[in-house]
Each structure stands twice: as C-alpha cells, then as structure tokens.
C-alpha cells in the first residue's frame, strides 16, 4: 500500500502510540519522509515511510476506543 497525503498513520519506532495525518511527503535521496500532524494532540513530526503503519478507518475506531 503506497503512502499518500491524507493517510492516517502511526510510527512503529514509538510503539504506534499516537495517530497522525500525513500532510506532506518529501524525498531525501531515495527515501520518502512523511510530514505528520497529530490527530488528537497538537503535535508535528516527521518519519521515514518505512517507520509508518497505515490505518484503515475501522482500525482507527477500534484504537480510539481502547
């Protein structure tokens, strides 16, 4: 599944603790770096595409309820 702007993701390296929306995607050499905004926290971050888990809507609803 290809990463795209608007996807809801979390970062593996942080234990998928916070959900983010992908707001931009940049390239550094041959790697994609996603610029992220927190969904439930005022937080900005970036992460390599390989560190991200993409969520489907059903998964987000389940994660929020936990």
Topology, element by element:
Elements: E1 8-11, E2 20-28, E3 31-38, E4 44-48, E5 52-54, H1 57-65
Structure description:
With 66 residues, this protein is mainly beta. Helices cover 14% and strands 44% of the residues. It has 1 helix and 5 strands. It has a 5-stranded antiparallel β-sheet, with no helix packed on it. The radius of gyration is 11 Å and the shape is globular. It starts with 7 loop residues before the first strand and ends with a helix. The model has no long low-confidence stretch (mean pLDDT 90).
Features of the shown structure:
1 helix; 14% helix; 66 residues; 44% strand; mainly beta; five-stranded antiparallel sheet
Low-confidence stretches: none
| Count, helices | 1
The overall strand count is: 5
Largest sheet: 5 strands, antiparallel
Brief rundown of the structure:
The protein is mostly beta strands. The chain is built from one helix and five strands. The protein is globular, with a radius of gyration of 11 Å.
């Amino acid at each position: 599944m290809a990463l795209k702007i608007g996807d809801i993701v979390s970062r593996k390296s942080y234990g998928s603790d916070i959900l983010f929306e992908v707001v931009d995607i940049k390239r550094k050499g041959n790697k994609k770096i996603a610029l992220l905004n927190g969904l439930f926290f005022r937080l900005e971050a970036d992460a390599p595409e390989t560190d991200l888990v993409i969520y489907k809507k059903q998964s987000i609803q389940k994660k929020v309820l936990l």
